[in-house]
Amino acid sequence: MTGLRWQSAEELHRAVSAGELSCTEAARACLDVIAAVNPTLNALITVTPETALEQAGELDAARAGGGAMPALAGVPVVVKDNICTRGIPTTCGSRILSGYRPPYDATVVERLRAAGAVLVGKANLDEFAMGSSNENSAFGPARNPWDLERVPGGSSGGSAASVAAGMAPLALGSDTGGSIRQPASFCGVVGLRPTYGRVSRYGLTAFASSMDQIGPVTRTVEDNARLFSVISGHDPRDATSLTAGPESPAFEEGVRGLRIGIPAEYFAEGTDSEVAAAVNRSASLLEEAGASLVEVALPHTSYAVATYYIVANAEASSNLARYDGIRYGTRAAGRDLAEQYERTRSEGFGAEVKRRILVGTYVLSAGYREAYYESAQRCRTLIAQDFQRAFESADVLLGPAAPAPAFPLGSRTDDPLAMYLSDAYTIPASLAGLPALSFPCGFSKQGLPIGAQLTGKAMSEAVLYRTARVCEEGLGLLDRHPK
Question: Is 331 exposed, middle or buried, given 0-12, 13-18 or 19+ CB atoms closer than 10 A?
Fold first, then answer.
């Protein structure tokens, strides 16, 4: 397995297409790593060996019959456990959905299957994608493969940890306020939050519907672009889906002539000095490759966290109202309907989810909606306008993905505000609906990964990819793996 564990999806697909490797061999090798590593990392809630080997066998049979190999043929993939998979448990990391098996696949899962990707497991996450550390999962926290006593980030911590640990070269996560980019930063992998509407949300369990997006998590920029091209595109089953189809980045164009904006607000007090130094090194590489660096301002950044936790919690309180023991999820017994509702939700939801439901219900209640929710929506508009002005003088913005490297398990569980602030640099792009990409840009003195974040104009994923590729090649970090 050693020879396959750290191969990219591109390398695996090339070997499968050339007949040098069977899809079944690739699947078995991946499952062997999962069996050895997952008991320690807890990155996967569900492992699917039967499904994986069945899919791989069908692909091998098709190849033996002379069939063409699709874009991801034989490549193992992990899917976050808030994305529906037909007949396979989709728990959202919660007790209330424990054992739930959807009767249908999410659109992104349909597209993975059509592209020949082999599903090997469902990734751990903060319950209903609400968290920044993966410590809110009803199935226990995932661990960071670079340091088992640190968090992998959240909520897509299981997706990022599984890729970083070599359990699969590809994973899907979901990003509402940074839940792909922050874990990617903590685990030293590449994670993209697409433009809002670029990837279908059909089959994604709703948290905050105006910001939720599914996105790819990979070890390399090229793999990320390949996976994004498979899952993106219009879906008539998603009313917010954009009509634009997938596109391939022109990596050969590089960054010559691009204007890289550096927001001063992303290097303010509270940003770790090692993080700032690593991101600045990426900026220097881009400048050496022919890009120009320009200073830009995002003056409303300091309001982003407060704005997000009003808007997102308001939407969450509405979306999670359906989990009442009648329509969805498990049911707790009660003497009457009111007690049944109360016990089902009280026992079924974890502390963080209940906290967000309470806050969201409060800010939408009579007498407080104008003061909180509507004010937050106005502030959201101002944050989006900040980006519009910044992109008048810059093509791409560069800054940290997180203020500091991964923090120790348990260090912030009693301080929700400190936990929320770990998403301070990822939230603004989510509020504005913009694409943003986290990529590894260095390591701390303790050996912890540091991630940089590129934010682009709407629909500019291809530009983000070729910019990140220049940094990836210049930094030379791909051969470094957790022990």
Answer: middle
